[in-house]
Structure formats: structure tokens, C-alpha cells
Write a structure and sequence with these properties.
The chain is an alpha/beta fold and 438 residues long. It has two domains: 194 residues, Rossmann fold; 205 residues, 3-Layer(aba) Sandwich (Rossmann fold), CATH 3.40.50.720. The protein has a six-stranded parallel β-sheet, sandwiched between helices. Strands 11-10-9-12-13-14 form a six-stranded parallel β-sheet. 45% of the residues lie in helices and 13% in strands. Bound molecules: uridine-5'-diphosphate-xylopyranose. The site of uridine-5'-diphosphate-xylopyranose (UDX) has 20 residues, from helix 9.
């Protein structure tokens, strides 16, 4: 099928390349010339495992191209909207400027029977408003909402083999079945592989995405709240998570207590959800998400406080090695990154922060040039007065306590991800501090 993907960020670039890899003829469109140039040359403009490989292979087939001109969307049957919905400045609400703008700019190039498919995470009610925008323009095109659940770091796999497909279809029966048939064509390989499909209305589809992220955020903040209780009782939250996680109704995943969640989705999605619920007069229904957010942000402060405490009450002029900048491993994304936040706060308290990360240094440096960045773990650790682990990259998780101990000035480790072997570090003479652990 001929597809266009509007917006070539973390979501759109992967979607475009993956759809071409699956056999579709795809044009990816973005206003950012540098991004389009990189993608056209088969280069991923950000770090995402597996993306460079499929960009090269799909481009070689001639089925994948990129452009800055919306006119190139003309002739595609299905148009995916994959632009960002960041948090509005000075508000919790989502900024819909890019989504509205993308659809408005696409309208002149729609052919009768085309399907516009929203993939961006949006406040409930957005799809209905966009469908009206399309019909009022006189374009004879349909709209569907098809939320994306990909995780950064696993985006290629999640796009090619999703764990579920959700279609939010138009209210009119004929349009709904035409839209469904087009989406079934797009996703035929996943459907043939038995991927579960939920076909529903716009509002449900929009809410599925927002509520999935709200649930995940709540799960993380739940265990982080237990970490806070563990801290005043001497309990160990990691063992607690193991024990409650063995109940299949609870499950161990997303019970990783630590410095908390960040990234381009969870934090802004829970805030946008609260803002939207308030607009709908149902603020109290999701008021708990404000607590989820507050618990999460407190954990960043806790890592900073533990570091200060471990250094005897002040980090001023102390060298602190910060291991990790990305919001999670396998990503170079620093949007709302707890790791970077901790680094910046420590620097604000007078510490000489020397930070390292396998992939996120370039992005971090652009935003916070005041920090010192080094490429190797060895440089970061050398003569450090304290070490703070805030993104659990493999190379940090497997840090050798003896080797690292010989490099640092003080054997002080603040493990913001509870990802090290605390016994091995203590045995090597380190003062080891985890979160929610004795
Ligand atoms: C999330 C959703 O998982 C995905 O389905 C949605 O499409 C986009 O938002 P992503 O932002 O890529 O994906 O990251 P995710 O793997 O969910 O992690 C989010 C944050 O939670 C990270 O900062 C991670 O470090 C943190 N986290 C995760 C924890 O602190 N503890 C855990 O147990 C799990």
C-alpha cells in the first residue's frame, strides 16, 4: 500500500521505516530539513537499536523516501500523523499545535477515500475535532485513531510485532468498515501473526493510550512510594517488589524502584490527562495522577539528598561521577530525564559533575553545556568523590566494584536504579546507598 507518515521523530521515523520493511511504499514527511537529509541518506537522526539497519534495507528497495514537502503525501491511501504533542508551556495540557497543523496542511493533498490515521498521543476528543476539520474542509477523506505503544529502545520490534492493535474508527458504519479495511491492509503481517485487535470508537482509542501510560506511571510510583516507606522502616523495596511481583495479578515488570520515570511520554501524558479530565469536569477521577507525578519527582530529590548526605552534608567542589544521562538505557533521549535532572541539581549545589553515557552525551550537552562530559567510564570515575548511577546501561550494571574502587577517590556509590550488586560493592569497601534499601 502507499502510505505517508507525517512527522519523523522517534515515532514517525521508526513507523515509516518499519512499514516500508513490511512491503509498503512509504514517504516520510517532516519540516526539519536536517532530519530529512539524514533519513534520506539512510542514517537515523537519533539512537534507536535496529533502526539504521531497516533504514538502509528499506531505502535500498526504493520503497522508502523522505521529504520536507507535504505535497509528497498526495497519492498515498493512508496518511499517518506522528507529530509530537509536548506539554504546553506554563500548563499541564498537551500542545496540539503540531497535530492540528499537520492535518490542516495535509487536507489540500487528500484524495477521495483516503484515510488519515492519528498515532500521536492526544487528549480524548481530539480525533472527533480533527474529523470535523477534515469534513468541514470538503475533503472526502476518513479519519481513524490508531495509538502507538512502542517503547524507545525496542521501537523497531514493537512496530513490526506489536502486542496489540487498537483502531478508533469513525461513527458512520460505512466509513468505519472502509477505514478498518485499509488499516487491516496496512497491518496484514501483524494480523496474520495473530496480533490481537481491538476495533472501537475514537474516544476509547485515545483513552487506551493515555490510560496505559497512566497505569505504567502509577505502577512505578507505587513501588517508589513503597521505597519511601522502606527507607523509614529498614525494609528492602527490591525484595518487596520480588515478593509482590510473584503474584501474577501484580507482576514484577515496572516495579523497578529508583530515581523514577522520565522520557517524552509518561510524565507529559499523565499531566495532559489530568488537565483534560479537569476540562471534562472529572478532575477528581484522575487526581491521584498528581500524587504519581509528585512521588516520581521526589525520587530525583532523594538521589540528590543521598549524594549530599554521603559526602558529609555538602557536594560543593566535590567531583561527582554521574553514570547515565538518557531517561533509560538503549536510548539517547534526554526529554524529562531523571538522570540529567539529578546531574544538573548536583551541579547547582556546587559539585563538579562529570557525566558519561554511551549515547546521550551529544543531546545532553546541547541542553546543559555547563556540565562536564566524558566519553569513558574510566574518565568519569577517576578521582571521583562519589559515584551516582542514574541510567542502568549494561556497562554500568556490570561495573566491577574492585576496578572502579581503584579509580575513585572515595568508595561512595549512590545507586539510583538499584541495579548493582550491593553485597559486592560493600564487600569491596564501598559505602553503597540504594533507594528504598537499607
Ligand atoms: C512508554 C510506554 O512504555 C510505551 O508503551 C509508550 O508508547 C511510550 O511511553 P518509553 O517512554 O519508551 O515508553 O519508556 P518506558 O520503557 O515505559 O520507561 C519509562 C520510564 O520509566 C523510564 O524513565 C524508565 O527508566 C522508568 N522505569 C521503568 C522505572 O523507573 N521503573 C520501572 O520498573 C520501569
Amino acid at each position: 500500500m502507499k502510505l505517508s507518515v507525517i512527522g519523523c521523530g522517534y515515532l514517525g521515523a521508526v513507523h515509516a521505516a518499519a512499514m516500508a520493511e513490511l512491503g509498503h511504499d512509504v514517504v516520510g514527511i517532516d519540516v526539519d530539513q536536517a532530519k530529512i537529509d539524514a533519513l534520506s541518506a539512510g542514517e537515523a537522526p537519533f539512537f534507536e537499536p535496529g533502526l539504521p539497519e531497516i533504514l538502509v534495507s528499506a531505502t535500498a528497495t526504493g520503497r522508502l523516501r523522505f521529504s520536507t514537502s507535504m505535497e509528497d503525501a498526495k497519492g498515498s491511501q493512508v496518511h499517518f500523523i506522528a507529530v509530537g504533542t509536548p506539554q504546553k508551556k506554563g500548563s499541564y495540557a498537551a500542545d496540539l499545535t503540531y497535530v492540528n497543523g499537520a492535518v490542516r496542511d495535509l487536507i489540500p493533498f487528500l484524495n477521495p477515500g483516503d484515510l488519515v490515521v492519528g498515532k500521536s498521543t492526544v487528549p480524548v476528543g481530539t480525533a472527533e475535532a480533527l474529523a470535523s476539520m477534515i469534513s468541514e474542509s470538503g475533503a472526502d477523506a476518513m479519519l481513524a485513531w490508531n495509538p502507538e505503544f512502542l517503547r524507545e529502545g525496542f521501537a523497531v520490534k514493537d512496530t513490526i510485532s506489536p502486542d496489540r492493535l487498537v483502531y478508533g474508527l469513525p461513527p458512520e458504519e460505512q466509513a468505519a468498515s472502509a477505514a478498518k479495511a485499509l488499516l487491516d491492509g496496512v497491518y496484514s503481517s501483524a494480523l496474520n501473526a495473530g496480533t490481537p485487535l481491538i476495533a472501537t470508537d475514537y474516544a476509547t482509542a485515545e483513552l487506551v493510550k493515555v490510560s496505559a501510560n497512566a497505569f505504567l506511571a502509577t505502577k512505578i510510583s507505587f513501588i517508589n512510594a513503597m521505597a519511601e516507606i522502606a527507607e523509614v522502616t529498614g525494609a528492602d523495596v527490591t525484595q518487596l517488589a520480588d515478593a509482590i511481583g510473584l503474584d501474577v495479578r501484580i507482576g514484577r515488570r515496572f516495579l523497578g524502584a529508583g530515581v523514577g520515570f522520565g522520557g517524552g511520554c509518561l510524565p507529559k501524558d499523565i499531566r495532559a490527562f489530568t488537565a483534560r479530565a479537569e476540562e471534562l469536569g472529572r478532575g477528581e477521577s484522575v487526581a491521584f495522577l498528581k500524587e504519581v507525578d509528585a512521588i516520581n519527582l521526589r525520587r530525583r530529590q532523594r538521589v540528590v539528598d543521598l549524594t549530599v548526605e554521603s559526602l558529609g552534608g555538602s557536594v560543593n567542589l566535590k567531583k561527582v561521577a554521574v553514570l547515565g544521562l538518557a531517561f533509560k538505557p538503549y536510548s539517547d533521549d534526554i526529554r524529562d530525564s531523571p538522570a540529567l535532572d539529578v546531574a544538573v541539581q548536583l551541579r547547582g549545589l556546587g559539585a563538579t559533575v562529570v557525566a558519561t553515557d554511551p549515547h546521550a552525551i551529544a543531546n545532553a550537552r546541547k541542553l546543559h553545556p555547563q556540565l562536564d562530559y566524558v566519553d569513558t567510564l574510566e574518565e568519569a570515575l577517576t578521582d571521583a568523590d562519589a559515584v551516582v548511577l542514574v541510567t542502568e546501561w549494561e556497562e554500568f550494571r556490570h561495573l566491577d566494584a574492585e576496578w572502579a574502587g581503584r579509580l575513585v577517590r572515595n568508595r561512595i556509590m549512590v545507586d539510583g536504579r538499584n541495579s548493582l550488586d550491593s553485597a559486592a560493592f560493600r564487600a569491596a569497601g564501598w559505602t553503597y546507598r540504594g533507594l528504598g534499601r537499607p
